[in-house]
C-alpha cells in the first residue's frame, strides 16, 4: 500500500530534525567523517546539522517541499564521501559505536534508500 505524500514528507522531516539535533547536541561521533584537509571537523558537523534542520523545515512545508526534497537528496549524496571515510577508518573493538566496522560499512548502502526517499518527496510535491 502506497503511503500518502504528506506521510513520506512528514517522516522525512522528522528524521532530518532528529539527525540535525543529534549533530548539534553530540557532534563528536560525526567528526571522524570529516577529512583533515577540510579544516575544523566541528564546524562541518555543526554546518551539516544546520543543513539537516533547514532541509527538515523545507520538507515540512508544502510550498517548499519540492525544493526541500531535492536539497535533502543532494545533502545525502554530499555526505556520502564522509560515510566512506568513516567505513575505511573503522576498526574492530573501538569505543565509539559509529567507528565499528559493522555500523560504518552498514551505513553505506543505506544512503541509496535515503536519497530515493528524498527524491520521492520532491517528485510527489511537484505532482499536487
UniProtKB/TrEMBL annotation:
Concerning Pfam families, the annotation shows: DoxX_2 (PF13564)
Coiled-coil stretches noted in the UniProt entry, renumbered to this chain: none
Chief localization = membrane
**Matches recorded under InterPro entries:** DoxX
The record describes its membrane topology as:
Multi-pass membrane protein
Protein keywords: Membrane, Transmembrane, Transmembrane helix
Keyword presence, rRNA-binding: no
* Localization (cell): Membrane
Q: Does the keyword Disulfide bond apply?
A: no
The name of this protein is Membrane protein
Q: Which organism is it from?
A: Isoptericola halotolerans
Amino acid at each position: 500500500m502506497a503511503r500518502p505524500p504528506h506521510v513520506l514528507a512528514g517522516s522525512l522531516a522528522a528524521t532530518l530534525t532528529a539527525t540535525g539535533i543529534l549533530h548539534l547536541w553530540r557532534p563528536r561521533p560525526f567528526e571522524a567523517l570529516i577529512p583533515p584537509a577540510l579544516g575544523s571537523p566541528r564546524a562541518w558537523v555543526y554546518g551539516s546539522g544546520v543543513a539537516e534542520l533547514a532541509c527538515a523545515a523545507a520538507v515540512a512545508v508544502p510550498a517548499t517541499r519540492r525544493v526541500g526534497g531535492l536539497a535533502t537528496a543532494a545533502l545525502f549524496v554530499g555526505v556520502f564521501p564522509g560515510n566512506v571515510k568513516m567505513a575505511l577508518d573503522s576498526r574492530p573493538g573501538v569505543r565509539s559505536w559509529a567507528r565499528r566496522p559493522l555500523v560504518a560499512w552498514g551505513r553505506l548502502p543505506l544512503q541509496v534508500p535515503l536519497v530515493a526517499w528524498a527524491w520521492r518527496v520532491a517528485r510527489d510535491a511537484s505532482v499536487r
